[in-house]
Design a protein that fits this description.
single chain, 445 residues, alpha/beta, Urease, subunit C, domain 1, TIM Barrel, 2 domains, nine-stranded mixed beta sheet, nine-stranded parallel beta sheet, 17 helices, 38% helix, globular, Amidohydro-rel
C-alpha cells in the first residue's frame, strides 16, 4: 500500500477532545495510521508540505440532489411548491442518461473543490444508475438513492411511477451499488416526501431498510403548505405520521424539519432520527428557519447540507456553516451556534448521521483518510495569530481556500486541479445538456 505524509501542518482533528495539533499526518492506503508532532519523512512514499496549511476532516453534506445541479439558476425566487411544480419536476422528468451523469459530475466537482468528501444524495425517478456511475468514477463517498414518487398532484408523467416499479427499481439499484468499492458507496431508500408517496410505499420502504440494514432519506416539514397537505391527507402532522407508520428510527435522515411541534421534536429525539439543516436553501425558498439550537439542546443529531443547486445556488459547505452560525443568533443570542458547534455538524455529527462516526468525521489513527487541506493565507482570512482555527474556518474561509481534497486515501483534487473528473469536458457538455432539457421540458430558455 502506498503511503502519503502531510508534513508540518495545523491539524484540526475533531477527536473527542477536539485537539488541534501542529505536526504531521501519515496515510497508508485508505487509512490514517499516525497523527502527531513529528513523523519521519522516510516513512512515506510521498510527502506534502503542510507549512502554513490547515488540515481538516472532509465535510459531510447530509442533504444533496446531484440530479438538480444542471438546473442552477432555473428556478430562482419561487416558493417551494411552485418551485417544484413549475420548474424542478418538469426538468427532472426531462432528464436522460447523459444529462443525469453530467449533472452528477458537475455537482461532485463543486463538492470536491469545496472540501466535501461524503454526501447524502437524493436522485430523481429515472436514470439513477448513471448518477451512481458518476459517483463511482469521481471517488466521492456517498449514501445515495433513487427518488420514489407513486402519488401526487401536478406530477409530470415522467416522474409518476407505480408503487411496485418504484420498489423493484430501488432494490435493483441497492443490490448493484450498496457496498461498492469497499463501502465507499452505499444505498439509501429515498421517498421524496409524504405528499409524493403512498402509505404502502412508505411501509414497504420501512421494511426493506430493516431487511437490508440501510438508511432512509426524505424531506419533512420544510414548508407550511406541505404540512397542511399532509394533515389533510393523513389527519396528522408530518413527523407524527412518519412515526405512526413506523418510519421514525435511527435509520431515518430528515432534510429541513423547519415547522415542528414540540411533540414532533420529542419524537425525533426519542427515535434517534437524524436531521439535516439546510440554511441556504431554507432562506432562499423562504421556507423558514429551523429551531436548530433547541433541537441541539434536546440531544437531536444535526448535520448540514446545501440541498440542490437550484434552491441555493451552490453546494458550498463554508457558506452553510457561516449561515448556520449566523441566522440563529438574532433570536438566540450571540453565543448560540458557536463555531465549534457548527463545525461539528459539518464533520463528526454528519458522520453520525450516516452511521460512520467510527470511520470518518475526524482525523484519528485507524479512520478513513477523508480530509481537506486549506490555505487561509489570503486577505479575507488574516491575521491568524491567536485566532481559533475553527473560528477562522467557519467565519472567514471560503471554498476556494481548499487546495487539496483526499478521499479514501486518494488525491481527488491536488493544488486545485481535479484528478478524477475531466473538468473541461463536464463544463462544456453541461451547457449542451441543460439546453436540451429546457427544450424538452417546454420551459423558456
Amino acid at each position: 500500500m502506498s503511503t502519503l505524509l502531510i508534513k508540518d501542518a495545523e491539524i484540526v482533528t475533531m477527536n473527542a477532545k477536539e485537539e488541534i495539533i501542529t505536526g504531521d499526518l501519515l496515510i497508508q492506503g485508505d487509512r490514517i495510521v499516525s497523527c502527531g508532532p513529528s513523523i519521519e519523512p522516510h516513512a512515506a512514499d510521498r510527502v506534502l508540505d503542510g507549512r502554513g496549511r490547515i488540515v481538516i476532516p472532509g465535510f459531510i453534506q447530509t442533504h444533496i440532489h446531484l440530479c438538480q445541479t444542471l438546473f442552477r439558476g432555473r428556478a430562482d425566487d419561487l416558493q417551494l411548491m411552485d418551485w417544484l411544480r413549475k420548474r424542478i419536476w418538469p426538468l427532472e422528468a426531462a432528464h436522460d442518461k447523459e444529462s443525469i451523469y453530467l449533472s452528477a459530475m458537475l455537482g461532485i466537482g463543486e463538492l470536491i473543490a469545496g472540501g466535501s468528501t461524503t454526501i447524502v444524495d437524493m436522485e430523481t425517478v429515472h436514470h439513477t444508475n448513471e448518477a451512481f456511475e458518476a459517483i463511482a468514477a469521481s471517488g466521492i463517498r456517498a449514501l445515495s438513492g433513487k427518488v420514489m414518487m407513486d402519488k401526487g398532484e401536478d406530477v409530470p408523467a415522467g416522474l409518476s411511477e407505480r408503487t411496485e416499479d418504484s420498489l423493484r427499481e430501488s432494490v435493483d439499484l441497492l443490490e448493484k451499488w450498496n457496498g461498492f468499492d469497499g463501502g465507499r458507496i452505499r444505498y439509501a431508500f429515498a421517498p421524496r416526501f409524504v405528499i409524493s408517496c403512498t402509505e404502502k410505499l412508505l411501509t414497504e420502504v420501512r421494511d426493506l431498510a430493516e431487511h437490508y440494514d440501510t438508511f432512509i432519506h426524505t424531506h419533512a416539514s420544510e414548508n407550511q403548505g406541505e404540512i397542511a397537505i399532509v394533515a389533510q391527507q393523513t389527519g396528522m402532522r408530518n413527523i407524527a405520521y412518519l412515526d405512526h407508520i413506523g418510519l421514525a428510527s435511527k435509520r431515518l435522515i430528515l432534510a429541513h424539519c423547519i415547522w415542528l411541534s414540540d411533540a414532533e421534536k420529542a419524537i425525533i429525539r426519542d427515535r434517534g432520527v437524524h436531521v439535516s439543516h439546510c440554511p441556504g436553501s431554507n432562506l432562499k425558498l423562504a421556507s423558514g428557519r429551523a429551531a436548530v439550537p433547541q433541537m441541539a439542546n434536546m440531544g437531536i443529531n444535526l448535520g448540514l447540507g446545501a440541498d440542490g443547486a437550484p434552491c441555493n445556488n451552490n453546494l458550498d459547505m463554508f457558506q452553510e456553516m457561516r449561515l448556520a452560525a449566523l441566522i440563529h443568533k438574532p433570536s438566540n443570542g450571540p453565543t448560540a451556534m458557536d463555531a465549534h458547534h457548527v463545525f461539528r455538524m459539518a464533520t463528526i455529527d454528519g458522520a453520525k448521521a450516516v452511521g460512520m462516526e467510527k470511520e470518518i468525521g475526524s482525523l484519528e489513527p485507524g479512520k478513513k483518510a477523508d480530509l481537506a487541506i486549506l490555505n487561509l493565507n489570503h486577505f479575507h482570512a488574516l491575521p491568524y495569530s491567536g485566532v481559533d482555527p475553527i473560528s477562522r474556518i467557519v467565519y472567514s474561509a471560503i471554498c476556494s481556500d481548499v487546495e487539496t481534497t483526499i478521499i479514501d486515501g486518494h488525491l481527488v483534487m491536488e493544488n486545485r486541479q481535479m484528478r478524477t473528473i475531466d473538468q473541461e469536458l463536464v463544463l462544456r457538455e453541461a451547457e449542451t445538456a441543460i439546453k436540451r432539457l429546457v427544450q424538452r421540458a417546454g420551459l423558456a430558455n
